[in-house]
From TrEMBL:
<feature type="region of interest" description="Disordered">
    <location>
        <begin position="657"/>
        <end position="676"/>
    </location>
</feature>
<dbReference type="GO" id="GO:0030705">
    <property type="term" value="P:cytoskeleton-dependent intracellular transport"/>
</dbReference>
<feature type="domain" description="Calponin-homology (CH)">
    <location>
        <begin position="4"/>
        <end position="119"/>
    </location>
</feature>
<dbReference type="GO" id="GO:0005815">
    <property type="term" value="C:microtubule organizing center"/>
</dbReference>
<dbReference type="GO" id="GO:0008017">
    <property type="term" value="F:microtubule binding"/>
</dbReference>
<keyword id="KW-0175">Coiled coil</keyword>
<dbReference type="Pfam" id="PF19047">
    <property type="entry name" value="HOOK_N"/>
</dbReference>
<feature type="coiled-coil region">
    <location>
        <begin position="548"/>
        <end position="582"/>
    </location>
</feature>
<dbReference type="InterPro" id="IPR043936">
    <property type="entry name" value="HOOK_N"/>
</dbReference>
<protein>
    <recommendedName>
        <fullName>Calponin-homology (CH) domain-containing protein</fullName>
    </recommendedName>
</protein>
<keyword id="KW-0963">Cytoplasm</keyword>
<feature type="coiled-coil region">
    <location>
        <begin position="472"/>
        <end position="513"/>
    </location>
</feature>
<dbReference type="InterPro" id="IPR001715">
    <property type="entry name" value="CH_dom"/>
</dbReference>
<dbReference type="GO" id="GO:0051959">
    <property type="term" value="F:dynein light intermediate chain binding"/>
</dbReference>
<dbReference type="GO" id="GO:0005737">
    <property type="term" value="C:cytoplasm"/>
</dbReference>
<dbReference type="InterPro" id="IPR036872">
    <property type="entry name" value="CH_dom_sf"/>
</dbReference>
<feature type="coiled-coil region">
    <location>
        <begin position="377"/>
        <end position="411"/>
    </location>
</feature>
Length: 702
C-alpha cells in the first residue's frame, strides 16, 4: 500500500520509540498495542491496563474499543500534562475506519495527537533527539508538521456565555437557524484550517529555501573575497560575472524576502483571523452539543406530536396540553401494563417450552419403550412361529399315527368279523364297525375327559385344603391354569367331535359316489349297515384320506396366509396411522401436534399390547395342545402294547384251531390272518418309530 509523505514520516517516527516490533504498515497499529506502548513511554500512569479484556464479538469491534480507550487516555494526558495544547482544534479520528478498513488518513490524524503530546509535553527535548535519528526527508516532514501544528497550541479565550444567548427548544425556526449557522461555521472553519495549513507549509518551504540561499550567498561572498585577494585585477571578468551573479542573487533574495514579508503579514493576518475564529469554534462546539440536544428533543417532540395528532383524531374534545399529558401518562401506564403482560407471557412461554421439552423427553422415552416392546413382540412372534412349526410337525405326526391306529382298528374289526368254527356269528359281529364317538364311549382305554376334569377338580380341592406347601396366590394361579387347560380340552374335544362328524359325513358321501368295479351295493338292515366282502374298503378309505389331507393342508395354508395377512394389515395400519399423525403435525402448533403424536403413540402401543396379549394367549393354547398331544401319544403307545397282546393272543388261538381241524377254508382264513398279523407287525414297528420321533419332537419343543 502506498502512503503519502506525511503518513510515511509518521510511521518512521513511531519506530523511534522502544516498541515490541517494527511498524511497517498502518495495519500494525489497528489493534492499539503499539499506540498504548507509546502512551506508556509518555507516562506509564496513563497507559491502558486492561487492553486485552475487550469482550467484543468481532475482531474489528474489539480493536475499535481499544483505540477509543487509548484516545481517552491520551486526551487525559494532554489535558493534565500539556495545558497549552487545545485538542479541540484537531479532528477526532474515525476509529471504525481504522479498525475495520485500516484507513491511513484516520490513522495519521491519531498519530498527530501523539506528535502534539510528544513535542509539547514535559520532556520535548527527548523526542527531538529521537526525531534527529530519522532520515533527512522524514525529519524535515516531521519538523514542518510540528511547526504547522504550533498554531493549534494556544487555547482560545473562554467564550462569553451571553453571546450565544439562550436557545429555545420549543421553536422549530430557531432550530433551523442554528443548523444553518452551524453548517456555515463548520464550512468556514474547515476552509480556514485548510488555508492556514497551506500557508504554513508554503512559509516553511520558503524559510528552508531562504536559509539555503543565504548559506549559498555566504559561500559565494567568501569565494569572491578569496579570489580578489589571490588574483588581484587579473580576473576582472570573472569578478564582474560573480558580481552580476551576486546582484542577481541579491535581487532574488530581496524578492524572496519581500515574499517572505508578505507571507508573514498574511500569516499574521491569518493567525489573527484564526484567533478570532477560535471563540467561534468553541462556540461552534457548544452549538454542536446544543444541536444534538435540540435534535434529540426535536425527534422526541415529533414523536409526541404524532402521538398528539393520533389522540386528536380519536378524541375531538382534546384542546389543551394538560389533557395531552394526561393521555400520555395513560399511554405510559398502558405500556407498562403491556410490558408486565409481556413479561408474564414470556414466563408462561418459558414454562410451556420447559413442559414441551419434558413432553418431548417423555415422548422419546415412550418411543424407546415402544421400540423395546416391538422388539420383544418380534421375539415373541419368532418364538410363536417356532412353536407353531413344532406343533404343526406334531399334529402331522399325530395325524399319521391316528391314521395308522384307525387302520389297525379297522383291520381288528375285520378280523373279528370272521366267525370262528363251532360258534355262530353274533349280531354284534355282523353289525357295521362302530364310529369314533361310539368307540370313545365304549372304549375303556380312551381318556375320559369328564373323569379327568373331575380328577383335576378333586386335586384342586385337595390343593386348596393343603395350605402347608403353597400360598393362596400360587393356588389361585394353578386354579386359573387348570381352568384354562380344562376349557382348552373341552374346546379340543368339541372340535374333534365336530371334525369326526364332518369327516364321517364326507366319507359316507365319497364312498357312495365311488364308481369302482369292485364296489357293491350297500345293504341297509334296520339300524345296521352291512358291506360285502368284495367291497374295496382300502381303496375308498385311501382316496378319502388323500382328499381329506389335501383339503386339510390347503385349509392350514389358507389359515396361515390369512393370519400373516392380518398381521401385515395390522402393521401397515399402525405405520399408516403414525405417518398420518406425522403429516398432520406439520401444519399444527407444537403442543397440539405433540398431543396428537402422543395419542397416536398410545393407540399404537395399545395395538401392540393387544397383539402381545393375543400371542401370549396363543402360546398358552399351543402349550396346552402340546401337553394334550403328548398325553395322546402316551395313550397311543399303551394302545399299541394292548394291540400287540391281542395280536399275540389271536396268533396263539389261530394255531390251536388249526391243530384241531384241517379244513382248507379254515387254513386259507388262517393264512390270511397270518398275513394280516405280519402286516400289523410292520405297522406297529412303523408306529413305534413314529411315536419315538414324536417324543423326541416333544422334548425339543419343551
Amino acid at each position: 500500500m502506498s502512503y503519502t509523505r506525511e503518513e510515511d514520516a509518521l510511521l518512521k517516527w513511531v519506530n523511534t520509540f522502544p516498541i515490541d516490533y517494527s511498524v511497517e504498515t498502518v495495519a500494525d497499529l489497528t489493534d492499539g498495542r503499539i499506540l498504548n506502548r507509546i502512551l506508556e513511554e509518555f507516562n506509564p500512569q496513563y497507559a491502558v491496563r486492561d487492553l486485552d479484556k475487550n469482550t467484543a464479538t468481532t475482531k474489528w469491534l474489539s480493536n475499535k474499543q481499544s483505540l477509543e480507550s487509548i484516545y481517552k487516555a491520551l486526551n487525559r494526558y494532554v489535558g493534565e500534562c500539556c495545558p497549552e495544547v487545545d485538542v479541540t482544534n484537531v479532528a477526532t479520528p474515525d476509529f471504525s475506519s481504522i479498525a475495520e478498513k485500516d484507513d491511513p488518513k484516520e490513522t495519521a490524524k491519531f498519530l498527530i495527537l501523539f506528535l502534539l503530546a510528544a513535542f509539547n509535553g514535559p520532556n520535548p527535548s527527548k523526542y527531538n533527539e529521537m526525531t534527529e535519528r530519522l532520515d533527512l526527508e522524514a525529519k524535515d516532514t516531521i519538523q514542518v508538521m510540528s511547526r504547522g501544528l504550533q498554531a493549534m497550541l494556544l487555547k482560545p479565550e473562554s467564550a462569553n456565555a451571553n453571546d450565544s444567548g439562550t436557545l429555545s427548544t420549543g421553536n422549530g425556526d430557531e432550530i433551523l437557524e442554528l443548523e444553518e449557522k452551524l453548517a456555515r461555521t463548520n464550512k468556514e472553519l474547515a476552509d480556514m484550517k485548510k488555508r492556514s495549513a497551506d500557508l504554513q507549509t508554503r512559509n516553511d518551504h520558503l524559510n528552508i529555501k531562504n536559509d539555503d540561499l543565504k548559506e549559498q550567498l555566504h559561500k559565494v561572498t567568501l569565494e569572491k573575497e578569496a579570489l580578489e585577494k589571490s588574483h588581484g585585477g587579473d580576473h576582472t571578468g570573472v569578478i564582474n560575472d560573480l558580481k552580476k551573479r551576486i546582484r542577481d542573487d541579491e535581487n532574488l533574495i530581496e524578492r524572496q524576502e519581500q515574499q517572505l514579508d508578505d507571507d508573514r503579514v498574511l500569516k499574521a493576518n491569518q493567525e489573527r483571523e484564526l484567533r478570532d475564529l477560535r471563540p467561534a469554534a468553541q462556540a461552534l462546539l457548544s452549538l454542536q452539543d446544543e444541536y444534538q440536544v435540540l435534535k434529540a428533543q426535536k425527534e422526541e417532540l415529533s414523536k409526541k406530536a404524532n402521538t398528539a395528532d393520533n389522540f386528536k383524531k380519536q378524541i375531538e374534545s382534546l384542546s389543551d396540553v394538560k389533557e395531552t399529558n394526561t393521555r400520555l401518562r395513560e399511554q405510559i401506564d398502558t405500556l407498562e401494563s403491556n410490558q408486565k403482560d409481556y413479561d408474564e407471557k414470556t414466563l408462561e412461554n418459558q414454562k410451556l417450552r420447559a413442559s414441551e421439552t419434558l413432553s418431548r423427553q417423555k415422548y422419546h422415552t415412550a418411543l424407546e419403550a415402544n421400540n423395546v416392546m416391538t422388539s420383544e413382540l418380534n421375539l415373541f412372534r419368532q418364538q410363536n412361529r417356532e412353536l407353531t412349526d413344532q406343533i404343526n410337525v406334531l399334529k402331522h405326526q399325530i395325524n399319521k399315527d391316528e391314521e395308522i391306529i384307525n387302520s389297525l382298528q379297522e383291520d381288528k374289526h375285520i378280523n373279528n368279523s370272521f366267525p370262528s368254527p363251532g360258534s355262530p356269528p353274533s349280531p354284534s359281529m355282523r353289525a357295521a364297525p362302530l364310529n369314533l364317538q361310539e368307540e370313545l364311549e365304549r372304549s375303556n382305554e380312551h381318556t375320559n375327559y369328564p373323569l379327568k376334569i373331575q380328577r383335576l377338580e378333586t386335586e384342586l380341592a385337595l390343593l386348596k385344603s393343603n395350605t402347608a406347601g403353597t400360598t393362596n396366590t400360587n393356588l389361585r394361579l394353578d386354579l386359573d391354569e387348570s381352568d384354562r387347560a380344562k376349557k382348552r380340552l373341552e374346546e379340543n374335544l368339541q372340535e374333534l367331535e365336530e371334525k369326526y362328524i364332518i369327516g364321517q359325513n364326507q366319507l359316507d358321501a365319497l364312498i357312495s359316489k365311488l364308481a369302482n368295479e369292485k364296489l357293491v351295493s350297500v345293504l341297509n338292515l334296520g339300524d345296521y349297515t352291512l358291506l360285502t366282502n368284495e367291497f374295496n374298503r382300502d381303496e375308498a378309505i385311501a382316496t378319502t384320506r388323500k382328499a381329506y389331507q389335501e383339503t386339510k393342508s390347503e385349509l392350514v395354508l389358507t389359515k396361515a396366509k390369512l393370519a400373516e395377512a392380518e398381521t401385515e394389515l395390522t402393521k401397515v395400519t399402525r405405520e399408516l396411522l403414525a405417518a398420518r399423525a406425522d403429516l398432520s403435525a406439520i401444519d399444527q402448533e407444537e403442543m397440539v401436534a405433540l398431543e396428537n403424536l402422543k395419542a397416536t403413540n398410545e393407540s399404537i402401543t395399545t395395538s401392540l399390547q393387544s397383539d402381545l396379549l393375543s400371542l401370549q394367549a396363543k402360546l398358552k393354547n399351543s402349550t396346552i395342545d402340546y401337553e394334550q398331544q403328548r398325553t395322546h401319544l402316551v395313550k397311543v403307545l399303551l394302545e399299541k402294547d394292548e394291540l400287540r397282546q391281542d395280536l399275540e393272543a389271536l396268533r396263539v388261538g389261530g394255531n390251536v384251531k388249526a391243530a384241531e381241524g384241517n379244513d382248507p377254508s379254515q387254513s386259507a382264513i388262517q393264512s390270511s390272518k397270518e398275513q394280516q398279523i405280519e402286516k400289523q407287525e410292520k405297522v406297529i414297528k412303523d408306529l413305534q418309530r413314529r411315536i419315538k420321533i414324536a417324543e423326541e419332537g416333544g422334548a425339543d419343543a419343551n
